[in-house]
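Structure catalogue
Derive tokens from sequence
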Amino acid sequence: MELERSCGILLHITSLPSPFGIGDLGPEAYEFIDFLETSGHKYWQLLPLNPTDAAYNHSPYSSYSAFAGNTLLISPELLEKEGYIDLQNFDIPTEADPEKVDFQKVSRFKEAVLEATYNSFRDKKEKVKKYKGFCKEHASWLNDFSLFKALHQKFNSPWYSWPDELKNRKSGELKKAQKELAESIEKIKFFQFLFFSQWANLTEYAHLNDVHLIGDIPFYINHDSADCWAHSEYFKLDKNKVPLKISGVPPDYFSETGQLWGTPVYDWKKLKNKKFDWWIERLRQNLLLFDLVRLDHFRAFSAYWEVPAKDKTAVNGKWVKTPGHQFFKTVKKEFPKMPFIAEDLGQLDDPVYDLLAAFDFPGMKVLQFAFGEVGSPNPYLPYNHLPNNLVYTGTHDNNTTKGWYVNADKKAKHHLKEYSGNNITARNVHSHLHRMALGSVAKLAVTPMQDLIGLGSEGIMNTPGSTKGNWTWRMNYHQISVERAIELKALNELYGRSRLEPEDDLV
């Protein structure tokens, strides 16, 4: 994939301001696209849009479907505009903190709104026709997903604890359940129709404004998911559908016992025998939503850390090779342009580098990782960047740049000062790293919104290893303005990342 010199902003949908306690696909999303266009940013990078769950603290990286959309992102205002509901009939949740999502309150409100929307939808014949077309187009995943969720609601338990006939997907029992739960299944499908309809309209608006969308695919999926239930043969499970092996990463500098993620690992031999069909369809689904897709935990396409399911730490795991080259050859046949970005952070080995090179994947360089020992080999230092890279000040898994600097050791601060030739402080560090990213030879520079508005640790989106307070940060209405957009546009033009307007072209 060939990138052009450009820039983007990293901001998840939930972090947008809105009157309903969570960012959604409504007016503020359209306004943010206007901001991107005005400020000369070509890309909007988002986190996964799949359904989230309270059991996993609403992490977008822990979903019960790799294909479905997150219905919490459906805009009540757009539903009202289409004549489904009247918002005056609902108690809009009050915000204890307008800069944090209260998922519990938001979920109750959105469920009430969606229920009312469903009740009014059958009177709209033109919508019924579109809904049926959507169900037909997406049947390959939607039928399994809607039945999974309806059964989940019925039993209120994971699929691997359901009666054996349903757990093992006996066709007679599945047909019986489909008949018994027909209305619940239709509601679930309808809510997906709403999400995908609103997303399609937003995508069209983005493209009209020359804004492109970058999505994100987690490598693993949850054990308790529609995908693992419907395609259990592609995972290392025992006869009772319990994982034999689970995912994680080995011990390293940050953790003596490694990290135990706990999701089932893939049976790549069986996937390969079926020409990787499930993964191909997963990629296809994401390319319906996004222009580019980041492949999270890319190194696992070369080899992954496999841990015995009974273990309490990741210490006794082992590296297991993945047929990455065969996989991406198959992917390239389906998607010749290969619009994928490799999340290649962390400790890599030669086989991972070989895989990156074989398919010319753009990789990531994070400036927060660049500074420490002067003179040490560091691939994140700007002079080691390559054109086929994306450069970030930080990511959704890092502290903000200001928060990082406050907590950095003296060596890192001194190195940054000497490298930049500027007097760096906690007040200005975000501006200096932003300019450093824009000045990099990396074709695409992406800056988290928190760094553009200079937030400290209060703007953290996620702290890996922590389960509290993540995924809740929100921007407020006053943190972006036309004046700021004009300033950013000038900066982007200065560093060759935004097209000069004809009247501004240098003669």
